[in-house]
Design brief:
With about 350 residues, the chain is mainly β. The chain is about 0% helix and about 45% strand. Strands 1, 22, 23, 24 and 25 form a 5-stranded antiparallel beta sheet that branches. It has a 4-stranded antiparallel beta sheet with strand order 2-3-4-5, with no helix packed on it. The protein has a 4-stranded antiparallel beta sheet with strand order 6-7-8-9, with no helix packed on it. The protein is globular and about 50 Å long. It starts with about 35 loop residues before the first strand and ends with a strand.
Length: about 350
């Protein structure tokens, strides 16, 4: 749970002396599903969560994630700037990863980082921040973007683009516009939204709210562009089916949210090289579904792993397979990755 009403109320304290995994550290089989560790300790308290992944133009993979000492890592004596965004890189299609390096670390708890490389080569990291209050609680500050023009070597000072929250990457549309899924809660209600940039990220629109149909949606909105040019937004619910909505005007207006047919948190949408659409999510545990008809219908649930952190991300690999990243949750939480092939016949899990 990522927004301020749904994050854990009690901070989890973990040992700073947890062992750091090497880049070659590979986990054993878990229920006959092989995974590798991307990172087990980024140096901020051995709790890693909320990952995303993208391919850089130089061919490497970049995994970005939250690093702290617990689900919420407010500034303290051991971590005076609170949780931060960190990244690891892979030059062998996800088999091994470099040690973690810091991407964003303001004076607040910087969380839920996502990353995209735009067609012009710029990297954009989107995230939101929580600020510690005098009474010991915290408040949300909004969503921010930091950019890199040198493949991640240096990053710009983060700038706020919305007072809403974000939990998904910026999506670049065919017409060049950028869209970022958002969500908000206010007065006991919650809903999804998007913000749009028509100038390559220089400025961003006000939030365009997505009608929730009268059902509180914690949302954690993600968006994908369909083959016909419409936008499809997936949104989280707590106990019922996730919801979807469509926009035919580039994201300014949206249909009333409808059930997708299965529950889930933190949806992440992705298109494979063969045109199959994937959606990964938390609940049950870490899972995914796939669609052969451009999000009109979805497959049965496909288990990914028994751990329940999720907040997943996808990237296409050079051999036509797909890499999925996700996290464990709990003390000493780490970032994991698996790879698979998606076909009309289903999901085939692969090894390195």
């Amino acid at each position: 749970m990522r927004n301020q009403l749904h994050l854990l109320a009690v901070l989890v304290t973990v040992s700073l002396s947890a062992a750091i995994a090497t880049a070659q550290d590979t986990a054993p089989l878990v229920a006959d599903k092989e995974f590798v560790y991307i990172c087990r300790d980024a140096g901020a308290g051995a709790y890693e969560a909320f990952p995303d992944v993208c391919r850089l133009k130089d061919g490497r993979l970049m995994a970005i994630f939250y690093a702290g000492y617990g689900h919420v890592a407010m500034p303290n004596e051991a971590l005076p700037k609170g949780g931060r965004a960190a990244a690891c890189y892979s030059s062998d299609e996800g088999k091994t990863w470099t040690p973690a390096e810091t991407i964003v670390d303001t004076d607040d708890d910087d969380r839920d980082p996502s990353v995209v490389q735009l067609s012009d080569g710029r990297l954009m990291c989107s995230f939101f921040s929580l600020r510690k209050k005098a009474d010991g609680g915290y408040r949300g500050l909004g969503s921010y973007v930091s950019e890199s023009g040198d493949a991640g070597k240096t990053w710009s000072t983060p700038r706020i683009i919305s007072t809403y929250y974000c939990s998904a990457p910026i999506r670049e549309l065919k017409n060049g516009n950028l869209v970022l899924g958002l969500y908000q809660d206010e007065g006991g209600d919650a809903w999804g939204a998007v913000t749009i940039s028509t100038d390559k990220g220089a400025t961003w629109s006000r939030p365009y709210d997505i009608p929730n149909g009268g059902l509180r949606l914690d949302a954690e909105t993600d968006v994908i562009e369909l083959k016909d040019g419409a936008l499809y937004a997936a949104q989280r619910t707590e106990k019922e089916s996730m919801r979807f909505s469509k926009s035919t005007d580039g994201g300014k207006t949206w249909s009333v949210s409808e059930p997708m047919g299965f529950p889930g948190h933190c949806p992440y949408l992705h298109r494979t090289p063969d045109g199959i659409v994937l959606i990964a999510h938390r609940v049950p545990n870490t899972s995914l579904h796939y669609s052969l008809d451009d999000c009109a219908t979805w497959s049965q649930n496909v288990p990914v792993d028994s751990v329940g952190g999720a907040y997943p991300g996808f990237v296409n690999l050079n051999d036509g397979s797909v890499l999925i990243v996700y996290y464990e949750e709990g003390e000493g939480s780490s970032i994991r990755a698996r790879k698979f092939k998606a076909t009309a016949n289903g999901i085939e899990w692969l090894t390195w």
